[in-house]
Design goal:
The chain has 705 residues and is of the alpha+beta class. Helices cover 48% and strands 17% of the residues. The strands form five sheets. It has a five-stranded mixed beta sheet. This is guanosine-3',5'-bis(diphosphate) 3'-diphosphatase.
């Protein structure tokens, strides 16, 4: 049985005597505090914090972290106060213990909500001191190792939470060993039958002669490296079972199709030796094309560095070879915990993954502050917790790490929030590209910004990073209220003009009466409601002046569209009006003003609510870019489509889509184009009509399809 003396022996290898004594004192304090308490297994409770300290000692945790590990349940389970711990062990330890204690479970309406709240609290505690999460991870690891004492339903719940939250956090912090242990134990607890069947299948496929083959493989590589005077340690291993299961599950592959079940790790002493070893491995075994990754030149976001290559082994089975230095190996296995190993050892070459982890935690706080609720917060950071990364470059060569599937919008927010908020387009490898383009490793991305630009709600359909999604939502939420108040003010002012009044002339009594009638708190709230279409400006004006005869009302001026109203003025897709068209506005609940062409058939559907109609007019200097579709009828001859497309290729108008909707001798295609005025539209239509094979060009409306 593991004892405090065993712990002290391990600690004496890297901590001074007085610090080891402090850790031992914390153990005896915890032993006394937990006296009489037992775990579900029947063991004395103090064996749990001792085991947590043992796990952290393997990571070479510092004195305060170990002391907090031994005392981490004292505040929660024994009634000893934070002040008492501060008096005994100092403010640093008490703060750590308090941080871990705050991660205890509370009662919530659902398991998802409970998990979200716990994760949110964890992020906030990590921001104060990253060691809080290390203690919590070690605590969870020991709980997983002793999970058999729990009833079946609790086993599954704890295992699921471990796979959803704790293992991904360990991975994000680069703690490979802890992550693998958590995943393997949780997989066996959550899917016991699948784990057993997969283990048997792996043993059946790779188990025969495995020891002999492994030894032979090690000897072959060792002798080849020795011939080149390269010193290195070599280990051959099987990939852990949950990693294999994930690949089979996500990619819908059988065990036979998984490329790298077997793995070789080669650890050397020098940076340049890694690349020399890579040359030896590729000379010895046939490399599989497209399976080489250089994480030394471009480290992962959690600080991980290594060369990865997949080769065909002597028995024809693919195997992944990882090549790294001893320092890289320490960081790869322990991640952020390697920071304390270096700190205690007094090394000056501090691993950068501590700074990376701190930066990540700060980004979590920014997301947390802008998220509306804990569930949205967790949803936004999922992509950060499961990063299959791509690495792209800024124009000046800075590397930006993003999750797989990220777009230029994610990149823009990754560089700076303000760049994200004002981006309008981008160049990928110097070519203009849509903001929805999925980025690939090695690309250079340049973001084009505009001073008055703002996030678009459509970005939420393709932005995937937590930082991007949170900032877009936050900006839109604030901006929508601001826009709604502005439009509401204009709509109410326009309606009040009919009563020969305006908002500024309203009395306090008039406003108070209307607010009370609608149970609204402030005038801004009322204006926002009008701007969003929940209340109608004319009806509110009628309430403010109930005694005025309608026959005396004057006709209000047209509502001018200047293009800067924001997201609460939109253009109907059915008729796609553009500047210069005669238009009418319809106030729709929660959508604001939807602008239609005056002759749009859909306008007739709204005549039952005439008070929601607004006379509209285009502003003098409007330069609104709008999407319309043209239907082109043409003779289907060779190169016809190319001729039509090239007829407008030298203009400033952007073609977003070209779709052939009818084939035959006489064919039809739909050309989606961004246009800013009727003059521009006339120019485009004239150019297309000038193509010899074109018979007819017309604007499309959805109603007319």
């Amino acid at each position: 049985m593991y004892t405090v003396e065993d712990l002290a022996l391990t600690l004496s290898q890297y901590l001074p005597y007085d610090q080891v004594a402090k850790v031992k004192r914390a153990y005896y304090y915890a032993e006394q505090a937990h006296d009489g308490q037992r775990r579900k297994s029947g063991e004395p409770y103090v064996t749990h914090p001792l085991a947590v300290a043992e796990i952290l000692s393997e990571l070479r945790m510092d004195c305060d972290g170990l002391t907090a590990a031994l005392l981490h349940d004292v505040i929660e389970d024994t009634g000893i106060s934070r002040e008492a711990l501060t008096e005994q062990f100092g403010e640093g330890v008490a703060s750590l213990v308090d941080g871990v204690s705050k991660l205890t479970h509370l009662e919530f309406n659902s398991q998802i909500e409970k998990q979200a709240h716990n994760f949110q609290k964890m992020a906030m505690a990590m921001a104060d001191d990253i060691r809080v999460i290390l203690v919590k991870l070690a605590d969870r690891l020991h709980n997983m190792r002793t999970l058999d004492a729990m009833p079946a339903h609790k086993k599954r719940r704890i295992a699921r939470e471990t796979l959803d939250i704790y293992a991904p956090i360990a991975n994000r912090l680069g703690m490979y060993k802890v992550r693998v242990d958590l995943e393997s134990l949780a997989f066996q607890a959550y899917y016991p039958m699948r784990a057993r069947m997969l283990q048997r299948a792996i043993h059946k496929k790779y188990g025969q002669q495995r020891i002999k083959d492994t030894q032979k493989l090690e000897d072959t590589i060792r002798s080849e490296l020795a011939a080149d005077y390269i010193e290195a340690s070599i280990s051959v291993r099987e990939k852990h079972i949950y990693s294999i299961y994930q690949k089979m599950d996500k990619k819908r592959r059988s065990l036979d199709e998984i490329m790298d079940v077997m793995g070789v790790r080669i650890v050397t002493d020098r940076h340049d030796s890694c690349y020399r070893i890579l040359g030896v491995i590729h000379a010895l075994f046939k490399p599989i094309e497209g399976r080489f990754k250089d994480y030394i030149a471009v480290p992962k976001s959690n600080g991980y560095q290594s060369l990865h290559t997949t080769v065909l082994g002597t028995n024809g089975i693919p195997m992944e070879v990882q090549i790294r230095t001893e320092e890289m190996d320490l960081v790869a296995n322990n991640g952020i915990a390697a920071h304390w190993a270096y700190k205690v050892g007094g090394s000056s070459s501090m691993p950068s993954n501590h700074d990376r982890a701190t930066k990540w935690v700060k980004s979590l706080l920014e997301i947390q502050q802008k998220a509306r609720n804990p569930i949205e917060f967790v949803d936004n950071v999922k992509s950060d917790l499961f990063p299959d990364e791509v690495y792209v470059f800024t124009p000046n060569g800075q590397i930006i790490e993003l999750p797989s599937g990220a777009t230029p919008v994610d990149f823009a927010y990754g560089v700076h929030t303000e760049i994200g908020n004002t981006c309008i387009s981008c160049r990928i490898n110097r070519r203009l590209a849509p903001l929805s383009t999925q980025l690939e490793s090695g690309q250079t991305v340049e973001i084009i910004t505009a001073k008055n630009a703002q996030p678009n709600v459509a970005w939420l359909s393709f932005a995937i990073t937590g930082k991007a999604r949170t900032n877009i939502r936050h900006y839109l939420k604030d901006k929508q209220r601001e826009n709604a108040i502005s439009i509401g003010h204009r709509l109410l002012t326009r309606s009040l003009n009919a009563f020969k009044s305006n908002v500024e002339e309203l009395t306090t009594e008039q406003i108070a009466q209307v607010l009370e009638n609608h149970q609204i708190v402030t005038m801004d709230d009322l204006l926002e409601s009008i701007g969003k279409g929940r209340h109608v400006g004319y009806l509110v004006a009628r309430e403010l002046f109930p005694n005025i005869d309608e026959d005396t009302l004057i006709t209000p001026k047209s509502f001018k569209v200047n293009g800067s109203e924001g997201m609460l003025i939109s253009y109907a897709k059915c008729c796609a009006p553009i500047p210069g068209d005669p238009i009418v506005g319809y106030v729709q609940v929660d959508k604001g003003i939807v602008i239609h062409h005056l002759n749009c058939p859909n306008v007739q559907d709204h005549l039952s609510n005439p008070e929601r109609f607004i006379h509209m007019a285009w502003g003098k200097d409007i330069e609104e870019e709008l999407h319309i579709s043209l239907i082109v009828t043409y003779i289907n001859e060779r190169g016809a489509v190319a001729k039509i497309a090239s007829s407008i290729s030298d203009t400033d108008f952007q073609v977003s889509n070209l779709d052939i909707i009818e084939r035959g001798r006489v064919s039809r295609l739909r050309l989606s184009i961004t246009i800013s005025s009727r003059i521009g539209l006339a120019d485009v239509m004239r150019r297309i009509k000038a193509v010899r094979c074109v018979e007819k060009v017309s604007r499309e409306t959805i109603v007319g399809r």
